[in-house]
Amino acid sequence: MARLYLTLYGVLFLTCALFIAGLVWLPELALRGTIQRYYERALIGAYDLVEERLVVRPPAQWDEVIAELKPQFRYGLALYGEDELGGLDISVPQQYRLREGRLIFQDEGEQTRFFKQVSDSDRYLMMVLGPNPQQEEIDQVGGIVYLIESRFLNSDRSAWPDILAGLGQVFEMPLALLSIDDPSLPSERVDEIKAGEIVVLGLEDQMETYFKRLGDSDQVFRAGPFEIPLILRYFNFIILFLLALLIALAVYVWVRPVWRDLNRFDRGVRSFGAGDLDTRLAVRKGSALSPLANAFNAMAERMQRLIHAHRELTGAVSHELRTPIARLRFRMDMLDEPLSGDDRQRHIAGMHKDILELEELVSESLSYSRLDRERPELVLEQVSLGEWLEALLIDLEEELLTVDVAIERQPGSTVSQVALDSRLMGRAVKNLIRNGRRHARSRIVLSGDCRDGQARIVVEDDGSGVPEQERERIFAPFARLDSARDRESGGVGLGLAIVSQIVRWHDGKVWVEASGLGGARFVIAWPVTQS
């Protein structure tokens, strides 16, 4: 869960970081040209009108002309020489564009400054426009409207159509002269128009249209609608759309491999449920679902092993039951025959022996099945290994009295404190001793010590030993060897399998090797410190 969360959080954080970084260069990259063209359409005409006022006067009087016009330009109107451009924070590339006769602009908070060269002179005209709500819009275009109105009023009425046509060539928007009584004028603003005020409509729709009565005449000058480019009108929506698209792409990049892994999970689980026990989940390295896949694979491995072991155990138990049951049936049939007293007692004793063998087989089978099926709750305790082995031999005294085999402790065994489950590990060691007792000729040696962080218990005998090629198979359930270690030696074939399970639960291992006594040497080793 934490891995999935961190992965998704990282993807979204990176996406948002890239988006925020993109906001720095996206307007410059995507909008600079559009804004440049928009401003040129809106202001080139105004610059031409101011330039007309300047070029008819000597350059020495240009400052006077600007001073006369400046009251009409609320946000600013000024002339600068070429040597003053450096002090205006105009970059070298922008200076080159200025000298080519192009319009440049600089955004400064709520105001925008515009510069353009006056004709072929070394003077540069600056206009300033402010924010764009309605009153500010009227204020910022007031100077331009004043220049246009002056152009008409300073000319004969008959020349007004030609003046309108000339203005249409420099202003890239529809221009018209309307009668004061024209029905197309906005009825709710007619009184303001008749009073000579500048009326601006369409700001909300970003389709500005300007109306201004020309002096006291019956003509109204209309400019517009002046449509703002779509990319500027809907820039905020475009930004939000791009953010949503980036998040969608980021989530897709995150979800796609997870979804692919989930599909593999679905197919794998269905296949496993259908009985294909070899099914394992394979996910890409570093997948957020790797822990889940590993858990499933471990579960599948254990279930396959348990089912396989169950089948083997069932088959083996069935096979092992046949022999004592067959003997019982034979002895029961024999009892139906006329027998002497000694023969009858011999068959009855044999039947008791077969019943005991059956009981031992069932008991050992249940023990092995329980140990193989679930991990027991180990009750670990710190014991002195030497003393613990001595106590173990005392528990076996009565059982060992009936056999002529000497069990001895090896001198020099290290006395160490180790952690073990006394009940389970005691059973494992007893099974090894009983196994050695069945196959030893006359001697069994028991030893225990600690070295290299491992506790070791060794049981060796002077019997016939275990062939090297059989040393792994001997720990399998019902595994039997021929020669001396066969059925006639006793046992049901589960003792060593139980030893292997108990040692495995102690995170250790057990193996058999050749003994210096001539027989088998069984070694149990497990970590001194249990996890």
How would you sum up this structure, described in words?
With 531 residues, the protein is an alpha+beta fold. The protein folds into three domains: 2-233, no CATH class; 270-374, Helix Hairpins (Orthogonal Bundle); 377-527, Histidine kinase-like ATPase, C-terminal domain (Heat Shock Protein 90, 2-Layer Sandwich), CATH 3.30.565.10. It has 14 helices and 15 strands. Strands 10-12-13-15-14 form a five-stranded mixed sheet. Strands 1-4-3-2 form a four-stranded antiparallel sheet, sandwiched between helices. A hairpin with a 5-residue loop joins strand 14 and strand 15. The two termini are 26 Å apart. The model is unreliable at 482-489 (pLDDT under 50).
